[in-house]
Amino acid sequence: MTGHGLLDIEHLHVELPAKVRGDAPRTVIHDVTLSIAPGESLGVVGESGSGKSMTTRAVMRLLPRGAVTTGDIRFQGHSVPGFTGRELADFRARRVSMIYQDPRAHINPLRTVGDFLVEGVTATGVMTRPDAVEAACALLRDVGVPDPARRMAQYPHQLSGGLLQRMMIVMALLPSPELVLADEPTTALDVTVQSEVMAVLAEQIRDRSVGLMFITHDLDLAAAVTDSLAVMYAGVIVESGPSHEVTETPRHPYTAALLASRPSLSSVRKLSAIPGRPISAFEAGDGCVFASRCAHATDICRTQRPEPRTVGGRSVACHHADQLKSVLGEVAAV
Ligand SMILES: Nc1ncnc2c1ncn2[C@@H]1O[C@H](COP(=O)(O)OP(=O)(O)O)[C@@H](O)[C@H]1O
Ligand SMILES: [Mg+2]
Asked: Whole-model pTM above 0.90?
């Protein structure tokens, strides 16, 4: 497989040690392959427990102790698992930034927002403090924060959740990274603030040609701000391709079910939840990970894991993707 250049995850498999000694290790990521081209935005969408955060932690080499990883993760062609200590430090300080779900969990309430903003880049020697303060003020204006100097002198409790998350966007962009990993960056916010903050992040990412991995459970939000989507279920990418195609004509029953279960403003369609509960990768047997909840599953789905293949311009891991084309198209169009 030829890589896209910025981030290439190939056949990533992650196992975590069992919680109880003597139990088998738990697979949390299974054979995940995805790519982000320079400046590209990729949405990774899935329910809770599907392995989205573990994927970002694997990229940052921040997996829980005892994790066993196979496959490769390449950044600009260089193998991340093969980085020396110095290369890893540079990777984390200058190349890739993380934005987390809940800024308040990552910010010291006793220090000013400004101190918090600049301490990353000054501690790693990316910028001097005066340069960092100046750059932070300019970035704050870019993300729509008026009077940035006053804001930087304030304490976290004086800022709204939306404003605090704009601060986190600024902190992520300060070292001029090539890639931003945003793990549910707006999930803790009100819905209207969510879309505002996401629009700001998407605009900044586009203007600077920064690559983005946007992790979310919200397929519509992801489709609105990304070039491509990867739909994840139980540690497996079940469908991936251009965002508008994946949401307009889903080819995997799980993608179609996600689309059918979302609330819609334009119709009175009722919220039809997907029957059953989401499973984790280690609970999936040999068959398709979605088989136990899939309305279209047959014997082969329960016994044999479908390999991803190209259907309708994207990659789909479903034995019946070809036959289901018309059926799933109708579901999404309802
Ligand atoms: N620290 C951990 N130790 C063991 N298992 C974990 C840990 N964190 C998450 N998991 C398990 O790994 C799987 C994937 O989790 P995660 O990547 O956090 O999902 P998501 O971000 O998609 O909600 C889940 O089954 C979860 O229970
Ligand atoms: Mg998560």
From this structure: yes
